[in-house]
Amino acid sequence: WYELRRVPEDASVEIAYFGIVPAEFGRGFGKHLLSCAVRDAWALGPKRVWLHTCTLDHPNALPNYVARGFTPYKAEEYEVPESTIRTPKTAIRFPRVNLNFQLTRKRKLLIAAIVLTPLLLFVVYTWSALAWSYSQGERAGYVQKFSKRGWVCKTWEGELAMVSIPGTMPEKFYFTVRDDAVAHRINGAMGKRVSLSYEQHKGVPLRCFGETEYFVTNVKVVE
């Protein structure tokens, strides 16, 4: 940091305070910071720019001033009591953040593994949910509704009315057909009593494979 002070008596500007925290010594910041201070001081339109230094400053302070264009114009010697000398507190140096991040081959493989592993697990889970059936069976009745629907993924969805005892309310069986050939046969058997063979697949993650967990695999006309 630095602080400039106008001196109206001789139309000059004094660099009243100039310093760098000890943790940053030896990194070349003093040269650039002093150049900025001198630039801002002359921008104020003075007749001269000056500052004070002493042997209590850093050993590189005076050479830095001279290198920036300052010339010594007055020197004084006097003793300073030890009790008035303040030892600067130890500065806390924060760890640097490396902004030069480069994608090495190892990092690329790590990123690819992070991205692809969840996708691969999802694919394996979906395949296993479709490949293995929780149960298999048959349902008999009359197909009341059967249509191909869906916003993006269209599947054949149907409703089978099962009547066990005449005069009672029919039980409804909702099913999905993924095979167009089986769907065509069901359409041809509308209005007839049919027997549907199905597989139950639990945990299918997407509705693109069907709106129900009962996938019809075959159809037979029973009367």
Question: Total number of β-strand segments?
Answer: 8
Provide the β-strand percentage band. 25-35%
Terminal Cα span: 97 Å
Strand order of the largest sheet: 6-5-4-7-8
Order of SSEs:
EEHEHHEEEHEE
List unreliable stretches of 5+ residues. Answer: 89-94
- Give the count of helical stretches: 4
Whole-angstrom Rg? 43 Å
Structural class: alpha+beta
User: Average pLDDT across residues?
Assistant: 84
Task: Describe this structure as you would to a colleague.
With 223 residues, the chain is α+β, with helices and mostly antiparallel strands. It is built from 4 helices and 8 strands. The protein has helices spanning 29-42, 61-67, 105-131, 180-188, and strands at 2-7, 12-18, 48-50, 135-149, 155-162, 171-177, 193-200, 214-221. The longest helix is centred in the middle third of the chain and has 27 residues, at 105-131.
